[in-house]
Amino acid sequence: MYGSFLGKSNRNLGVEKVATKAGDRLDFDGGVQVIVTKGGDGDITHSDGGEGLKVGKRYQDEDTGIEVLVTKPGEITLQCNGKDMQLQEPKKTKSAD
User: For residue 34, which of 44, 42, 43, 26 has the smallest C-alpha distance?
Assistant: First the structure.
């Protein structure tokens, strides 16, 4: 259920929060992988099921500010500090009329 940083366990059984740094690669069960694009103090885990993750989609946690980019898809739901992370909507740009 817990991600790992470059193959090392990210399991944190205590109450303290783990610093998640930009550039960290997190690997989850089933070959799912994400890259942290904006770090913060939080523990990123997952739960099975949900809508699944798609390559290129970004997820964020509003409380910690942590953002991740999906690089390998899978049928899981990302969580930060036990709360589901939210899919980021693409940023709208002004048209060049």
Answer: 26
